[in-house]
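Q&A log
Question type: sequence-to-structure
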Amino acid sequence: MCTGCVQKEYPDRGNTCLESGSYLMNYRSCVSCQRRDFVLIRNKTTEDEDGEEIVTFDHVCKNCDHIIARHEYTFSVVDEYQEYTMLCMLCGKAEDSISVLPDDPRQSAPLF
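Response status: OK
Response body:
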């Protein structure tokens, strides 16, 4: 992918996992055409491997079709938690885990 198009490679996004869209704050401009315009999503695929959903696509320059970055997003259910991950040179890296129960056991306060 293209390191010249982004301000920072794989920025840490904490728990912000994007299944679609683009993190334009990290987009410098296209090194191919030198323009800063919208970023398109191309070649989007969704696979289901052993209960894990994997979404991949390319971030592409609107003007010259230069590939800026490859985006990978995963979703799975492990035990009683929904697990999300994202890895993309433009959008960054992130992980999140959310309980499928109404009250997350990790968030409960001790009684004593």
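Response note: The chain has a mean pLDDT of 90.
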